[in-house]
Specification:
Length: about 475
């Protein structure tokens, strides 16, 4: 069986407490455990990028990481990845801050990764590359003679050609993406947007079943909606609450809870959500004193300006809404700019009557699936979900809303807060069927199966180099 090499922007080594049980890490580790192999990428730190790789080996998996120079961290990570690609792929061209040096730095880091990985690749290895930081990665490997199977999964949406073509290097990026053998997307519309983009630039032939060809390169595209680990979530959610929260729950027994959690990111629609909550308070006064909306939003990408801006905006809005509607003994909105332990989060989901997940654009949104998986099957809460989350393609039994329409979201919240048990049960069981059928393990197995089925590019040019085996890394 071929060995698997996973390449992602950041690598979660086994001793990293924070990464531990996250859904995506569980999926990737599942794939690595069954094939054996290597997880390779940036450490998340800045330092000497010419230093040898840091490596850890446990059983049949090795982790290999390296630091980036301060300049590459800025150009590749803060600028091109997170101030150009992330906003553009989330349809926020107004937040794109394109600088040619950053694009150059992005390409340099992709080339650096390829250089560092090259000596570790064996002829039969299968490579699985993750996300928008690494769009040109296969191109850099192909330039260096690598003809192994290389797959790519995009975790975020792929924008339509009108949006994508606003990026100055859009044509290069599209052509570079065609160096992957298999391109996986969260939804059919992401896959279609990518193919439309290619077709606008060159002659595209083929179809989903046979595969495609463009710029003389053959590749396949397919849709793999990412899932969660429903059994683990249900188990953790059902554990008893820690004493402090149990006491708080007792005090708040008469309150209905609306709950959300996400990285503090403008794509998640947090200011719009706060305004929707305000509309609920304004138009449904019967809820005054009886509900609480808790929003957990740990800081992410705090070095990027747009992220600092949204943080200030939320602090102001939360204060304004509480100032306007709060009463002695009742604070309607709890906004916590903190990271929470994952096991605790699963329990908090379970005690929330409403899960409010209203991103303006989202590749999938795992929080929506986690919330449902954590519910008490006998008395489940209600999911209010944005139609712009990839998850809305699957979780059609949620209350689907347009996050830009604060009154529509407020109406959905009111409906969720007052929904009879029979309707809650039926919506929950429909969503759980899908979440269980397409869990994180199915996701990784489907991708790896399809990648293994790809006919490798010209085997005669297969990288013929003397390579050491992985124990050398330890
Ligand atoms: C990208 C795409 C796609 C959040 N706050 C805390 C915490 N979280 C966890 C959640 C969830 C994960 O982070 C977030 O996943 P999402 O899917 O919601 O969003 P992104 O981070 O934007 O992820 C997205 C995903 O990739 C996978 O393909 O679904 O569309 O944007 O698991 O629970 N976890 C802990 N504390 C927190 O405070 N422990």
């Amino acid at each position: 069986m071929s060995r698997l090499i996973v390449i992602s922007n950041r690598v979660a080594p086994p001793d990293d407490k924070k990464s531990g049980a996250g859904g995506l890490a569980v999926g990737i580790l599942g794939a690595l455990k069954s094939a054996g192999g290597l997880w390779f990428g940036w450490s998340g730190d800045t330092g000497d990028e010419t230093a040898p790789l840091n490596t850890v080996t446990q059983d049949n998996i090795s982790w290999a990481t390296f630091d980036l120079s301060e300049r590459h961290y800025q150009d590749y990570y803060c600028q091109f990845s997170n101030a150009v690609l992330w906003p553009a792929f989330h349809y926020r061209l107004d937040l794109v801050n394109y600088q040619r040096e950053a694009w150059e730095g992005y390409q340099q880091v992709n080339a650096l990764l390829a250089e560092k990985l090259l000596p570790l690749i064996e002829p039969d290895d299968v490579l699985w590359v993750h996300d928008y930081h690494l769009l040109p990665f296969a191109h850099e490997l192909r330039k260096r003679g690598v003809s192994n199977r290389i797959g790519f999964f995009l975790h975020i949406p792929f924008p339509t050609p009108e949006i994508f073509s606003a990026l100055p290097p859009h044509a290069e990026l599209l052509e570079q993406l065609c160096d992957y053998d298999l391109l996986g997307f969260q939804t059919q519309s992401d896959s279609a947007a990518f193919l439309d983009g290619v077709a606008m630039k060159t002659r595209l032939t083929g179809n989903d079943a046979r595969g495609y060809s463009a710029w003389g390169k053959n590749f396949r595209t397919a849709v793999y909606p990412i899932g969660v680990e429903p059994r683990d979530i249900a188990e953790q959610a059902a554990e008893s609450l820690p004493p402090k929260l149990a006491q708080m729950k007792q005090e708040l027994i008469s309150l209905k809870n609306i709950f959300s959690v996400e990285r503090l990111d403008y794509s998640k629609g947090l200011p719009e959500r706060f305004l929707a909550f305000e509309s609920l308070l304004e138009r449904y006064p019967e809820h005054h004193g009886n509900i609480r909306y808790t929003q957990i939003a740990p800081t992410s990408r705090g070095d990027v300006q747009a992220y600092q801006d949204i943080r200030h905006q939320l602090e102001t809005e939360a204060g304004r809404i509480n100032g306007k509607y709060g009463q002695l003994g009742w604070t309607p909105l709890y906004y916590l700019n903190q990271h929470f332990d994952r096991r605790l989060l699963m329990k908090v989901y379970r005690h929330a009557d409403v899960g409010l997940v209203t991103p303006l654009r989202d590749g999938m949104n795992l929080v929506a699936k986690e919330y449902v998986a954590a519910q008490n099957p006998e008395n489940p809460g209600v999911l209010v979900l944005s139609k712009f989350a990839g998850a809305a393609h699957e979780l059609t039994s949620a209350l689907i809303v347009n996050p830009y329409d604060r009154d529509e979201v407020a109406d959905a919240l009111h409906r969720a807060l007052t929904m009879p048990l029979a309707e809650r049960l039926s919506r929950y069981s429909e969503m759980m069927k899908i979440i269980e059928q397409n869990d994180i393990d199915c996701w990784q197995r489907a991708f790896i199966r399809d990648l293994n089925a790809v006919i490798p590019r010209s085997p005669e040019s297969q990288l013929q180099q003397k390579v050491a085996t992985f124990p050398r890394l330890a």
